[in-house]
Amino acid sequence: MHRAAYLFLLSTMLLWGGNSVAGKLAVGHVSPMTLVFLRWVLAVLIMLPVGWRTFREDWPELRRHWRLLAGLGACGFTIFNVIFYTALNYTTAINVSIEQAAIPIVIILANFVLFRLHVQRLQIVGVALTIVGVALTASHGDLGQLLKLDLNFGDAIMLVAVLCYSLYSVGLRLKPAIRWQSLMLALSFAALLTSVPFFAWEVAAGRVIVPDARGWAVAFYTALGASVVSQIFYIRANELIGANRAGLFINLVPIFGTLLSVLIVGEQFQFYQGLALALVLGGIALAEYSGRRATVPASRSPSLNMSGSTQK
Prior knowledge:
Number of strands: 2
Structural class: mainly alpha
Number of helices: 13
Strand order of the largest sheet: 1-2
Largest sheet: 2 strands, antiparallel
Strand content: under 5%
């Protein structure tokens, strides 16, 4: 179970790291809100032939929980990305990376407040190590640069994005017992609907950049890799080991994004990038060691998997 969760999470973070590179490649080839809109149009089109039959069969459960599913799709899929892109217009990539590293902390706090889920001391140490790794990456190896950061409007709204994705991760434990195809199609529908107002605003403001060949390639990648496949993996991993432990892997995203930039964009590999990767992986390993020990007694109780059955 744990190995499968780790494989899902590492694949997810690699795909999300690739999304960072895709974002760089998209500049000037497709506008941000247009990209968000096309991302979910394509995601729905991808999921329709895969999930329509199960969607109809699961419709009674979907209808009963439509508010929850709409909220999850809006928060985790659309609003986070809209704010993320907007924040980068007002603040630096360093600030955004550091602030995004707060997601695991907010997940832990939300799980404690809402569900009284506790964490072990070693898990807290592990979280701290991953944050140092992210800070090292964001500051390009010079942690002293963090003292020079100026907080502004972009940083304020990025904290809203952090809260949105954290609540999405925690809220996944409340999802109905439906099959993954139905769940992903429902969340994609919700994301598409909530992306329309932002796309309409961009059109009205005259800021639309119609995608060219590269823009469409980025859109297809964000739809298939960074949306459909990665979200299915992330949801399944949350189901296997819980949001507290799965959320910690999110701090691999800037690390993988930097390494992929070296491979794809041709940026030069630096020593601090290897050190940051070691810190993040070490922090995750430490937190997982503690988390597995703490959940052994609880593993005897059944939990729902994405097919709606129970597992031990």
